[in-house]
Predict the 3D structure of the following.
Amino acid sequence: MLESDRELLSLIASDDVQAFQKLYHRYWDQLIKHAYVRLGDVSTCEDLVQDIFVDIWNKRKAIVVHSNVKAYLLTAVKYQVYRVIDRRQQSCDLESSGLAEHMQDESDLLSFEELYHRIEVVVEKLPPRQREIFKLSRFGNLSTQEIAEKLQLAPQTVHNKIHQSLTFIKAELKHFIFWWGSTLIFYVL
């Protein structure tokens, strides 16, 4: 019998290792491929996806998936890919600016998890319809056309709402700009 993803999550929350393995094998290859498109390094992609599944197992009792499980996993991969790209960029920026020798550890920079949490808080401030459109776009990985069809809106309306959401989120997070010595460090959404 093939269990649904939600059934597997429920079983995983009950410490069912076999359910976890089924979910793992169901999505492993797809998540690796999704990450590989952006990173181009199989080893890094495997580590990234492995970390996601370890996190799911460690948080199995508390995990809540509001969208479908596949969208949740793809979103997790997307944000882990952003994290890897961000670290690569920071490493290049720090090496080229000479700031690397001044950095004590990663805690000196705003952590990705904190930034992600703050983005979630800001998204919840959006008007309900705009928030729904934004979540379908960014967390549900739907195209503008797919969202327009699903919500029976004009594609341009969907595009405008996404643009308005991004503008609002960037404005709300502008205070996450800070100085490290004489160097400006910031995160861009």
